[in-house]
Design brief:
single chain; about 220 residues; Rossmann fold; 7-stranded mixed sheet; 8 helices; about 40% helix; disordered N terminus
Length: about 220
């Protein structure tokens, strides 16, 4: 893992990163107690695609570590996880949360990066997961960059925010814009083959604002 001090010293690249540097604590508390983490872990246990031993996995836009933690709890095979985010303070929070649960593992790395310009070579990962990141960028550009770093045959799991009364509140709180579901599907088809579009049960906390799209790069 990168040291927390080094992450704090890195400069943010745009307004979204600066905003989340200021509210990382609020964001972490909000999503720690709303049941999203349990929903994600339950989903991942049932729906993770087959990954090889030692697969390289990218959490693109990890925030304070909610999806990273859920993956670590759910996955049953050793993988190498790289978690990136634009906000340095969010990365520090995520790193601490992961270390508290799983220790200082060399299989988990944290890097400050922009999802539109990832510092990785083409075909670097067997799986990419993203939640709450593509709402801040031009969707087609974000999906194109994720496709670039994903190896052929690799999987992408995208958990987009779907327009709803709850997501409208989240948009105001966290300064993002949800993409219409039809646009998400159309732009995803440009770079991936959609394997499954999963809708969380209505009473599942995460189902109030998110859906899950599992796709494969061909």
């Amino acid at each position: 893992m990168r040291g927390a001090k080094a992450l704090k010293e890195m400069t943010t690249e745009n307004g979204a990163g600066t905003f989340y540097d200021r509210i990382a604590g609020l964001y972490d508390v909000t999503f720690k107690f709303n049941g999203y983490g349990r929903s994600l872990e339950k989903y991942l246990r049932k729906h993770l695609p087959p990954l090889p031993h030692g697969a390289r996995v990218l959490d693109a836009g990890c925030g304070t570590g909610l999806l990273t933690l859920s993956l670590l709890k759910a996955i049953k095979r050793p993988v190498n996880i790289t978690a990136v985010d634009l906000s340095a303070s969010s990365l520090v929070t995520a790193q601490k949360a992961v270390a508290e649960k799983f220790g200082d593992s060399p299989r988990i790395g944290f890097t400050q990066a922009n999802v539109l310009a990832l510092p990785f070579a083409d075909d670097s990962f067997e799986m990419v997961l993203t939640s709450g990141a593509l709402e801040y960028v031009p969707l087609r550009d974000g999906l194109s960059e994720l496709a670039r770093v994903l190896a052929p045959g690799g999987y992408m799991l995208h958990l987009p925010v779907r327009p709803s009364p709850v997501s409208k509140l989240l948009e105001v709180m966290f300064h993002f814009k949800a993409h219409p579901p039809q646009v998400v599907a159309e732009d995803t088809h440009r770079y991936f083959r959609i394997l499954k579009h999963y809708r969380f049960p209505p009473l599942d906390p995460i189902g109030w604002s998110k859906t899950a799209i599992l796709a494969q790069k061909v």
